[in-house]
């Protein structure tokens, strides 16, 4: 493994990337990070507020700018790339797939080309390209199917998962053809601080606070394997430290739950928070909980997501045995921390929910 003193984190101003940057800086005082992020609607400088600017340089730029990436690798003597940058929301990939191909496929290829040029020139230098991917590339499971293992067939069903699958294949090809030292992690659904409120958990949480309908797609019985973002970030660090080049590791929470159960737990948490803290009723007067009513009353069944995958689940045995990976958070501890974070960080979520996001979400729900 290369000397990880300065690493390049793409998409480090997004949800998982920002949590990863914070975790790494806290864990190793000698490490510096260069964040490369295009600041799309999902990226936000405030996600990195408070990080030491001496140890975390922010570069506002696009991963498709190969020359920029080459310059950053050379100028900062970077030998490790952790690649998060992507378009990540399945619903957006249905309404507008082009950006997913541009960023997830062409953007990943641009990074691979830059890494190959800089790291493999001449006799080459020790290096690592870590690619952050998703369990969605494996498709959808039936109720009794075994969970996704690393050698499962790729069967992506949405433009998002197809674009991630294509990027996984490019990463694999650069290893086999050019001997670029790569690792890939395919992870299940994350939740936690700084998650943009278009994804299930923060969206439901904020709708409870505002007294807005909680839109359940289809029958609400689609199953996801939920993982706290800190545990995902720990898994990536383990893959960097112990992962074998060319290998893929699936990371999950062993925490499969149907969407209705997730929403039920969120509504119960918000109800309990209002009961325990009377100041919440004044802050969020339109929430049913402000009047002692259950937030569950906001549940609204809406038209299903086209092509909606029924079930994801991760077989974690390879990451456990080779990397020593195990999640630290249970869903109970992780969700309690997440609800507390969103209640304590109203300024953050009000700031990220700007006009463009609101317009998109209002259009999306109006036409369902
Ligand atoms: P996110 O949408 O919150 O953040 C993506 C970040 O990438 C943003 O900061 C955005 O500005 C940046 N970005 C987008 N296009 C860019 C470009 N062309 N150049 C530079 N930066 C660009 O995403 P996330 O949820 O943090 O996901 C991060 C990665 O993890 C993605 O690759 C995603 O596929 C993968 N993943 C996510 C989950 C999940 O549950 N969120 C689970 C498994 C894997
Ligand atoms: O599995 C990993 C993937 O998890 C990541 O690769 C993606 O980047 C990430 O967005 C996530 O994809 P999902 O589509 O599973 O997450 P999302 O939060 O959009 O939806 C979770 C489930 O909840 C899914 O079954 C759809 C449903 N849902 C979602 C929203 C936003 C609803 O029922 N209502 C909603 O309003």
Please describe what this structure looks like.
The protein has helices at about 15-25, 65-75, 90-95, 100-120, 160-180, 200-210, 230-240, 260-275, 280-285, 315-325, 330-345, 345-350, 355-365, and strands at about 5-10, 30-35, 55-60, 80-85, 130-135, 180-185, 190, 215, 225-230, 245-250, 255-260, 300. The relative contact order is 0.13. The protein has 13 helices and 12 strands. It has a domain at about 5-195 and about 225-255 and about 305-330: Rossmann fold, CATH 3.40.50.720. The protein is an alpha/beta fold and about 375 residues long. It starts with 5 loop residues before the first strand and ends with a helix. The strands form 3 sheets. A 7-stranded parallel β-sheet has the order 3-2-1-4-5-6-10, with helices on both faces. The chain has a 3-stranded mixed β-sheet with strand order 7-9-11. It has a two-stranded parallel sheet with strand order 8-12. Nicotinamide-adenine-dinucleotide (NAD) binds next to α1, β2, α4, β5 and β7.
Low-confidence stretches: none
Q: Do you know the CATH architecture of one domain? A: 3-Layer(aba) Sandwich
- Mean pLDDT, rounded to whole units? 95
Assembly of the depicted chains: single chain
Number of helices: 13
Biggest sheet details = 7 strands, parallel
Can you list the strand order of the major beta sheet?
Answer: 3-2-1-4-5-6-10
Provide the succession of SSEs: EHEEHEHHEHEEHEEHEEHHEHHHH
Strand content: 15-25%
> What is the tally of beta strands?
12
Query: Which range best describes the helical content: under 10%, 10-25%, 25-40%, 40-55%, 55-70% or over 70%?
Result: 40-55%
Estimated radius of gyration: 20 Å
- Class by alpha and beta content: alpha/beta
Here the CATH topology of one domain equals Rossmann fold
Shape: globular
Bound molecules: nicotinamide-adenine-dinucleotide, 2'deoxy-thymidine-5'-diphospho-alpha-D-glucose
Gap between N and C termini, in Å?
Answer: 48 Å
Task: Kindly provide the name of the CATH class of one domain.
Answer: Alpha Beta
CATH superfamily of one domain: NAD(P)-binding Rossmann-like Domain
